[in-house]
Amino acid sequence: MERILQENKSVLFALYPEWGGFMPMMALAKAFSRRGWDVLFVLPPEGDEKLSLHSQQVEHYKKYIEEQGFQYKLLRPFPKRFGGMLTQTRRETEILANILEDTIKIIKECNVGLVLIDSIISFVAIAAIESGVPYVGVGTAFAGFINSKIPPSDSSFIPARSSWSSLIVLLDWMLLAFVARLFITFRPKYFLRYYFGIGAFVRSRARATGLTVGFSDYGPMFKSPLHYLMPKRLDFEPRPGAEYLGCVVDLSRADEDFKMDRLSGTKPLIYCSLGTRSWEYPASKRFFRVALKTFQQRQDYEFVLNIGNTCEVEDLGEIPDNVYACKWVPQMAVLRKSSMMITNGGMNTIKECICLGVPMIVLPARNDQPGNAARVVYHGLGVRGDLRWIEHRELSRLINQISSDKSYIKNIEQMQKEFMRLDKFETGIDLLESYIAA
């Protein structure tokens, strides 16, 4: 390994810029750093949020990366305006070509020996292969290819060991593929993008590098072994050919101390958050009002309500005395004090809850969250509801269900012990390093 370190000093992380996927990738980066590797991140440029892949958070990523002593490289700025549909198709293709060109340049200039790629942006594998550097597809969500036993990650269906269950799972996959085909066929923007824009561009470059594309629940994705930053125990069942690298939660993360002077600290605490992108969910503001009504009636608890950028705290009206409402909290610090969490079901949050022994009420909004909620229920780690329609009586009932049934605490503590006992994280790093040796 010493020879490899001398020849290829850097590991490059290409990540999809959302906080829930960023934190487990950061835990992975710290593990590589402890083994003597230089760690480098590639980030989208600052600018318009829609054109820069959620780049309003880029400053947060840059700050956090610098605090950990790592380096980052920014991609070249994206154009601010696209014009008409044909111009947009052409510009999107140019952007993708620039991303690959910039990544290839970074790989060569920074002596990169391995590229770790979030499976959501698997197209970056083209840059790695064209640079002659090994790459690894990393799953920060339970996304994957068609499987008769595991539904798509956006499905709320809980599979069982029966032929009927397999049929329903396959129908779920068929429906997903059918809807995707409808979009491509009948929406001009997607038709142009798939046949003449970035879709055609990626297929052409992929053929030249020997990559094959398969249909996944996150759209077209290159077929290569997936390495999930989750424990095998948390999935419905192991996926053929997949590697599970363990929990990958940085429990040593130094979240700042969080003082809740408004709360007495004498009652059990419930933490409520819809994640870092709650402002994108149409139902979030309505839900926060429902939550406040529920919390006001539940004087047996105290609550921390994290509303993110959905609105200002003042927009929600009067805040009950037993509620601390704010736009941001250090999540790990609050979870350590909590007896329960109300969450939208981001995978990183679910893993943190399990590691800290906190049962969950999961109200999924989109993407992989329905599938994550299904796994929480499947393993008896919590309950789920519907974010769009939930009312205060139903939310209060779910709180009662968690608090009155001790099996949730028992199950989550058992899962917590298994996480620690079966954690393959260091073994997983060995596996990733072996790709460089190969």
Automatic annotation (TrEMBL):
Molecular function per GO: UDP-glycosyltransferase activity
Please list every transmembrane segment annotated in the UniProt record, as residue ranges: 164-184
This protein's record includes keyword Chaperone: no
* The keyword Glycosyltransferase is annotated on this UniProt entry: yes
**What keywords are annotated for this sequence in UniProt?**
Glycosyltransferase, Membrane, Transferase, Transmembrane, Transmembrane helix
The source's superkingdom equals Bacteria
Q: Which CDD domains match?
A: GT1_Gtf-like (cd03784)
Q: Which PANTHER family match?
A: EG:EG0003.4 PROTEIN-RELATED, FI06409P-RELATED
**This protein is called what?**
Glycosyltransferase family 1 protein
Q: Which organism is it from?
A: Komarekiella delphini-convector SJRDD-AB1
